[in-house]
């Protein structure tokens, strides 16, 4: 059913003005998606799913099947949440965009993943600033079907509440960025992707796994919490975990002493290597040198 909005020039995010509840959730109103939006989801999905076998970790690919996320258009969050809740107790709640940190952490701590309901416009198919439904649902949601990762992200939400209380948000945001968004995992058959920011981006899917440009460094909690990140381009360093259990164990400790140690240390630039790094691959930065030369 096509609503009466101007379909020739649809707004970038038609949920931007949707009435928000106290927890910043909105109504997805799944029946309001038009054919063009469902078709765009299907094209984004088809393009990405062709690249992921052999590059995304098995836990992600298995979960994609289990949640029946496929080419049948923008998912209905209520239906998706029923499937997800049966597996790990998580649900997907619609939001219109970024929500305040405290609201975000509260949702994660209660096993609710806030996902953007809008889908990126045609002219931003390859890169979008605000998390849209493809980044959030195709990128982030599938791994919530994995019991260990599901517990990790809930622990992250609980840690976020504590970090906010201590004013230590920057370190926690780095942990999120270098794992949940851009993390790699070592497997017996080679490096695989689990970070949502990579899984929802065709170019970074190839770059993060196959390009000689970036560093790939073994995950270490304090190292990751010290390392600044890049918002609007590929990462210069990717961190590699050996299992989701490692990530979960890292979160089940009091971050207080870590924050105290980190306060005494300078942060690290995205490309920097540090003493003690277990280097998986040392980058040659050809991608960034070319960009700097071209600038
Ligand atoms: N809100 N909807 C949404 N999605 C996010 O990923 C998000 C957010 N608010 C805050 C936030 N992320 C970050 O500040 C935290 O990861 C630290
Ligand atoms: Fe994200």
Describe this structure as you would to a colleague.
The chain has 295 residues and is of the alpha/beta class. It has one domain: Aromatic amino acid hydroxylase (Phenylalanine Hydroxylase), CATH 1.10.800.10. The chain is built from 13 helices and seven strands. The strands form two sheets. A five-stranded mixed β-sheet has the order 4-3-6-5-7. β1 (91-95), α4 (101-109) and β2 form a beta-alpha-beta unit. It is globular, with a radius of gyration of 19 Å. The N and C termini lie far apart (47 Å). The mean pLDDT is 94. Fe (iii) ion binds at residues 131, 135, 140, 181, 196-197.
- Spatial shape: globular
Q: What is the straight-line distance between the termini?
A: 47 Å
Report the β-strand fraction as a percent range.
5-15%
Structural class: alpha/beta
Q: Could you say what the CATH topology is called?
A: Phenylalanine Hydroxylase
| Ligand identities | 7,8-dihydrobiopterin, fe (iii) ion
Rg over C-alpha atoms, rounded to the nearest angstrom: 19 Å
